[in-house]
Design a protein that fits this description.
Elements (H helix, E strand, L loop, with lengths): L3 E7 L3 H14 L5 E8 L10 E3 L5 H15 L4 E6 L2 E3 L5 H9 L5 E7 L15 E3 L6 E5 H7 L12 H11 L3 E12 L8 H20 L3 H5 L1 H5 L10 H5 L4 E7 L3 H13 L2 E8 L6 H10 L3 E5 L7 H12 L5 E4 L4 E4 L6 H5 L8 E9 L12 H4 L2 E2 L10 E6 L4 E2 L8 E2 L3 E2 L5 E2 L13 E5 L4 H8 L13 H5 L5 E2 L7 H14 L1
Parallel strand pairs: 1-2, 1-4, 2-3, 6-9, 10-11, 10-13, 11-12, 15-20, 15-22
Antiparallel strand pairs: 4-8, 5-9, 6-8, 7-9, 13-17, 14-22, 15-17, 16-23, 18-19, 20-21
């Protein structure tokens, strides 16, 4: 029986790290294992920690310290490096299955279970020992002899991006193989150890490109991961860094006034949709918005800017947000609190956005407007549950778009809250160029926005009494009746309702 050192790296995820440690120590069935929980300079280390690092030294160096600590304790046959944010659904036999496959051949250097991942080849194996070009370092089991022969991960990639490409290449150069197995599966969960995921992703990507370019030259991607290039055809342009690392992070910019009853649902829904950061501009609210947003602010998920100017405050708020986020490798969705962005085809919006051409500067996402569904007054159920009736797809208002912009491009506000001046131009999901607030034709099969533009009559009258956020004119009460076409009972978005209710319930119980 091979001896295994299990190294878990924690950073500000104490609860899930403790749960993982309990599984590894009490449920995981393997007779010769030792668990090392390394805290990477957290403000509140988990109870399960075995070794504390005084400061956060980054993902890769933190794992390397864990390896050094474990290997100093005794000689192990292999080391299992685990992120803290993983879960096991297949009982306690995962490690035994991984060890059995890994040590069945001297050619196998490292192995990983299948898991949900932005890298397609990590999701499904079709054999117990499927040779792959590299393994995402989420739950990788590496032979001690591999580390002795090839070395450890590239420590210059401190944030973790790029170590998979580099290590897979070095293993191949040593005449060894990286293996994905269909005998084990894990779940990779979102955790939130980084207060600003978008910023972290941008820094990690920049570091990866810089380090690997220095090691392998400008065409590093063709050297370390040729399978990703050749699968595109020899005449195709080389893949961008974002294509190699998967999906760009997604953030949201919005301005609000007196939206406290709706903010929590709107934020939790969009977190399910893959939004990692919310840049919110507070405009003269006199409700209890602070108590709703403060927990999100403390966790680094929401950044609130006081934007108390009267009149046309929307455009200047967007201009301020663009200036602060300009140049970052992220998508920024510019929407309102009564708009819910999602994909009918994909589980998250970033997965849908990843299918779009790199050349596009922005995508214009069409509305589908919803009326009151016969409701006259407010009730506390989720908005996406209360309102299901809407006009048909081709109602004239549904040609409106809202923009999701690549912030790495040059982007500017030119007096339109729907459409912006962006290098690479704006296209709808079908590749038709959009030059203003309306798309040439409605389309919402890849991405859509449910726009709950009235809610109940009571809520609508209360909202329009505040005036327009763009400071132009006023909204008439008669508009309410114009939006009450009940041609379609549309519950597409409600596939996310169970997850949304679970999040809202968990937050209320925590209070």
């Amino acid at each position: 029986m091979q001896s295994i050192a299990i190294v878990v790296l924690n950073y500000n995820t104490a609860a899930i790290t403790d749960a993982l440690a309990r599984y590894l120590r009490e449920v995981l069935v393997y007779p010769d294992k030792d668990v090392f929980v390394i805290d990477n300079g957290s403000s509140a280390p988990p109870a399960s920690v075995t070794h504390n690092l005084p400061i956060n030294i980054g993902f890769t160096c933190g794992m390397h310290e864990g390896y050094k600590i474990a290997s100093a304790a005794r000689h192990y046959d292999a080391y299992w490096f685990l992120n803290s944010d993983i879960a096991f659904d297949d009982g306690g036999g995962v490690l035994a299955d991984l060890v059995a496959v890994l040590f069945s051949s001297d050619h196998y250097a490292q192995i990983a279970p299948q898991h949900n991942s932005p890298h397609p080849h990590m999701r499904n194996a079709n054999a117990p020992a499927q040779i792959v070009p590299w393994l995402e370092p989420t739950a990788t089991l590496i032979k001690a002899s591999t580390i002795e022969r090839v070395g450890f991960w590239e420590l210059a990639c401190t944030l973790g991006w790029g170590i998979d490409y580099d290590y897979g290449f070095r293993i191949k150069q040593a005449g060894l193989q990286s293996i994905l197995t269909d005998r084990a599966r894990i779940v990779h969960r979102e955790h939130g150890s980084q207060a600003n995921q978008a910023e972290y992703g941008a820094r990690a990507q920049e570091e990866m490109v810089r380090v690997l370019r220095r090691k392998y030259g400008d065409t590093w991607y063709r050297i370390v991961s040729p399978a990703l290039v050749t699968s595109r055809g020899s005449s195709a342009p080389p893949p961008t860094a974002s294509a190699l690392v998967g999906m760009l992070p997604l953030a949201v910019c919005a301005i609000f006034r007196n939206e406290s009853p709706y903010l929590q649902e709107w934020i939790e829904f969009h977190r399910i949709m893959g939004v990692e950061k919310f840049y919110l501009y507070q405009n003269r609210s006199d409700d209890d918005w602070q108590s709703v947003l403060q927990p999100y602010v403390e966790r680094g998920l929401v950044e609130v800017t006081d934007w108390s100017m009267p009149g046309n405050c929307q455009g200047p708020a967007y201009r301020d947000c663009f200036a602060k986020q300009r140049g970052k490798a992220l998508w920024l969705a510019v929407i309102d609190i009564d708009e819910f962005l999602f994909s009918p085809k994909f589980a998250t919006v970033p997965k849908a956005l990843a299918t779009l051409p790199d050349a596009w500067g922005a995508v214009g996402v069409n509305w589908l407007i919803f009326g009151a569904s016969g409701r006259e007054e407010y009730s506390p159920e989720p908005v996406i549950e209360r309102f299901t009736l809407r006009p048909g797809d081709h109602h004239h208002v549904n040609t409106h778009i809202k923009s999701v912009v690549r912030m790495a491009r040059q982007v500017a506000v030119r007096g339109d809250a729907h459409h912006f001046e962006v290098s690479g131009s704006t296209f709808n999901e079908n590749g038709v160029k959009v030059t203003g607030a309306h798309s040439p034709a409605h389309t919402s099969s890849l991405l859509r926005i449910n726009h709950y533009c009235t809610k109940s009559r009571q809520e609508y009258y209360k909202r329009i009494a505040l005036g327009r956020v763009d400071g132009v004119g006023y909204v008439a009460r008669s508009v309410f009746d114009e939006r009450q076409d009940h041609a379609v009972d549309d519950r597409t978005i409600q596939r996310f309702l169970p997850a949304l209710k679970a999040r809202l319930k968990a937050d209320s119980e925590a209070d």
